[in-house]
Amino acid sequence: MEEQALPQIPIFEIPKDGKDCFQIGEFSFNIKKCDFSIAKMTHEFFTEIKGELVNPQKAIKKELLDNYDQDGFVSLQFACLGIHKNGIPTGEFMLEEDKTNGPYFYLRREGFHYSMSYYGKITFQDGWMGYHGYIKPTYRDLPIYPVKIYKKFDYSILDWGDYHFSSIAETEGIDYDTIQYLSVERPKTAEFPISILNFRQLKNLNIGNYQDYYSNTHAPLNEIPKAIGSLSKLEGLSIINCSITTLPESMSKLKSLQTLNVSNCRLESLPYGIFQLPDLTYIFADNNQITYLPESFDAPKLTAISLNKNQLQTLPEDLAKLPNLNSLKIEGNPLKSLPKNFNEVKGVEMSIEDKRRLLDFEYRGADGKGVTEWNNDIFYADRNSTLLKPIEEIIKKNKLTKYQTELLALGKKTVSFKISGDENYQKIGNHRFGGMPDLPASIVYPTFEYEEKTNKYEFIAQINCQEIAHLQEYLPRTGMLYFFLSSIHFIGFEENFKFIQVHYFEGKIDELISGKNLKFSNEDYYEMIDEGYAGLQVTASEAVTFPYFYFYSNNIHIFKGRADKLNTDFETDDKLQDKIYDNFETPVQELNKADFEINGYMFTQHESPELQAALSKKGEPQDWITLLKVTSRGDFQWWDAGELAFVIHKSDLLKRNFSNVFCTMESS
Prior knowledge:
By secondary structure, the protein is mainly beta. The protein folds into four domains: 21-160, no CATH class; 175-358, Ribonuclease Inhibitor (Leucine-rich repeat, LRR (right-handed beta-alpha superhelix), Alpha-Beta Horseshoe), CATH 3.80.10.10; 376-415 and 541-666, no CATH class; 422-538, no CATH class. β3 and β4 form a beta hairpin. The two termini are 29 Å apart.
């Protein structure tokens, strides 16, 4: 459809009659709420305008407003930086399809039809907010509505002490002691902006090309003065993409510092005094030239250190003794050795090759008693001619017989679940995703303590092992498996409680108590919209699944021992991946449209769930399997329609020990 041309946007002028206005086309809205403030959390200048259309039926019929509440209320919310000028919000921002021309601005709107988008210009001038522009549907042949909003506000009540100034120029005309948050993007000279040292109340300072965080372009700033130690209130300091090679020892005076980010610079070392700061919690120093760290540390709150892509050959033993260190990222360093006590540090992140070489990487089982041997063939489908027959036809049709043996060897024997309807709780012990579980008296519904509150785990699924015993050989033959999650916001952060729980009940189904007797509200959970995920019934069937080859180079364990030739040819033939994708991966994935899976593959833009499990809990990635993959279906929405994976070591599965299951999520 040909796009409708937008009329020219008028220039903002303060109304001569001094009256407020909220007009959209023929519709005049009453301004019911208007909030102009400095947000204490984000430190942005925040605006919210709420309007009411007394008789909204016509606007709803014309699809200007949505038809959900039909109350005629609409609101616009936007926040921005770069708006301060001598104590008065001043500036202009362009909108096109709700998107803006500046990195420090966003728009949110409510009450309008979903297809409508804003185009225009927002102006702040002399205590007025003005919006001139249009609202129009995207890709729909509906009318364009001109929009005019004028609102006068009292800027004298704004507390600029909470505001994040986006440049030194923006601080002009304001008392030095008011300035607590400041960014200086892309400094143009080698000298440190000396005027910053006047801001003695500064809590957070960002300097550098922080909008191009991953860029290799360095700003010319090459020296940080000793006087920076006088900024004693600093809690956060970021110097990113600059040409500095050293930091002054005077930074040891920054006793309030909690976060230090000096990534993508040219540092050759970090000052000894940094590691003696009492409140320092996070250090980010990726992509520098750091060759060594101090031998002694006295930073009791230091929780995370990121030193990826430096020149470290080893690390001091005392670093591993820090009491709260639970994340240490050291990938991309030419490490030759590590002290033995780094085996005890939680969250050491480096390549699996370095972990094998430098640490004790043997998996000793969930019970700590070692692993039990298993028959690896039971996890693969290459002995099942019925499952593989349609795959062989695809290989033959697309002339891939050269790799038939390798491709077939990758097929996993998967249990596939498809949604068959909403759960009605008429049957106890059936497969169930969401809703409430049928638990035996021996399993109390799990809870965890967080933020001085007892929270219920979110129930994800129950699997009746007996009903799928004929579909596979690796799960328990009887009993029930239960899967619980604390919250997706805790994935990857297992500190004071296990963020997932997996329980196995090996008793009889008639010992279960129906989940319909469980009733929780959203207040019972850490974060839940309703009373829990809506329950779904599923049907199970056997399937064969194959890997996605998108990020094969980081997941070569998938090929190890089963398809080595395929991996070798990927490296030598740059067209082979596209060929496999078009002629094998795409048609094969179309064969199995599962909603949930056991022992399947998961699409990943990074490391596979099995590799993530090995990196987190030790052992070889091919020795772990995805015990359950939960796709975004129904109420399950893992961020942007992602997938949730529970991963278990094959030995633990054989022992029926589910106490060390790993969980991860893949989402765009």
